[in-house]
Structure formats: C-alpha cells, structure tokens
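Dear colleague,

Thank you for sharing your sequence with our group. We've completed the structure prediction you requested, and as agreed, I am returning the results in plain text so they can be pasted directly into your records. Please verify that the sequence below matches your submission; if there's any discrepancy, let me know and we will rerun it promptly.
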Amino acid sequence: MKFNDELLEEINVLLLFDMANLNEGIKVHKTAGAETIEAVTRLHNKKLISQTDGGYLTDLGVDAAEHAQNLYTILTTD
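Please find the predicted structure tokens below.
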C-alpha cells in the first residue's frame, strides 16, 4: 500500500494547521496550486475541514492532523 499524490497533498494541507491553536484556520486562495485547491475540497468532502476553501479542522480533522503531524515528526527526527 502506498500514498498516492492526492493523499500526499491532503496530508500536506493537514500539516498547515497549527495544532497549538485550533481557533486558527487556514484560507486557500484561488491563486494556490490546483493540487492544493483540490486537496482542500476533498478534505472538506471527507468532513475533515469546515469550508471548501479551508476554514477550521472538524473533530475528525483534528485527529487526522494530529496523526499527520506526529508521523511527520517521527520521520524527520534523527
């Protein structure tokens, strides 16, 4: 099993959220890359974020973002 490009882009979007301040969301502008815009839309459709252009993490999104950020930390720590 491998992560495809779409899933990797979704993970990258989840890594943008500041887990220390869940009241801070993200805004993806129309000038962002098409891959990022599509990833944000998919995350919204999966009910992980509140808006089609970003917004805030849902409860499920918080869980997913925590896992993504923990995995990133584990893989980038020497």
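Summary note from our side: The chain has one domain: 5-76.

Kind regards,
the structure core
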